[in-house]
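Hello,

Our lab assistant flagged a job as stuck in the queue for most of the afternoon. It eventually completed. Since we weren't sure the result was trustworthy after the delay, we are filing this so someone can double-check. Below is the sequence as submitted and the structure that was eventually returned. Let us know if re-running is recommended.
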Amino acid sequence: MTSNNSNSNKKKKNPLEHLIAGGCAGLVESSICHPLDTIKTRMQLRKNQVDAHQKIQHSLVEPAMRLKHSLQEPALRLRHSLSDATATVKASGAGAATATLVHEPTASASLRGLPPAAGAGSAPSKVVVVNHPVRGTTVASLGPIGTAQRIVQREGFLALYKGLTAVYTGIIPKMAIRFVSFEQYKDLLNDYTPLGRSTTATFTAGLMSGLTEAILVVTPAEVCKIRMQSQHHSLVDATQRQHRKYRNVFQTAYTISKEEGIGALYKGVVPTMLRQGCNQAVNFTTYNAMKRKALESQQLSELPSYQSLLIGGISGGFGPLCNNPLDVVKTRLQKQVVVEGKQPKYTGLAQACMVIAKEEGMLALWKGITPRLLRIMPGQAITFTTYEFVTYHMNQRKVFG
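-- returned structure --
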């Protein structure tokens, strides 16, 4: 109780202090961590759709085909070696792709039991073209490292920073709104509710600040960012760079509004609000609780920078683990281009979750969790450390009295 009273009697900080410290924190954090956000977005936009008819057909035909091929393989090898039915064609030039032409009996002939004899009356055959990867290209896995390699190789290193202008444009108002609204909500809860400076008050203030920033800044900024990140043009090739649809955040916002209406800038606002609210509630609560314990145990008034870095990183990891499906749905909704007169694939939060889970499996809702954790945990560590550092030095110099 004494602690709460002493906290409530603290001098309130000037809102400009939160504006400057939060803006600096956001600028530093986004400059360092943005490539991980681009990788996360590309992973979440990758679709692993499986055709149900094709799946059933393969499940029925494949066992018979395997049996037939195992019985006929020696004869096929002999026939191929005698008739030279396999030809490898190599395109001219260094690093060119190769294609192998392979004659093999059709599935229908194999299933009827017809022998693959050459000459008249033989079963119809088809040509299977086996494309080999171009030498020097990266066959990337679905993981974050493979995705990063693919982006860099195909589009250049700077492609990892696509959408950064959208982040820079929104980062100062976002961080200002986040920290200023958090402090304002906390003061309101202390002055007008019995919660005081309790953990519940901190959680509620964090939740409300997350909802506020999602509506005012985050949603339109992220719609523009994701449209820019989802473009697969090369930043090395001047021709591709010149003909890209989205060039910068202002042109992107104008294009989206012109083609799809101003409301398109608020696509995914519901999952964005839920994501930001959950993130900031957990973030501020965990950080403030760990910070308070660390200060009390060490009898300090301010934490060393490395401790702020550590506590900020740990607190930043809890939110993504809980709300990654919201982030996947948000990304799909914001990437989606709505054509007038045509029903969009994703129409809302619940419907999008069901469609993604049905077409790609439940685990698809957790796409991008690794780069997201790699992005958010160090990002929150940098944000809180920079915020504390700037705030401390402004107080030391009595910038605001």
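-- support follow-up --
The delay was a queue issue, not a problem with the job. The result is valid. Strands lie at 87-90, 98-105, 125-131. The chain is about 65% helix and 5% strand.
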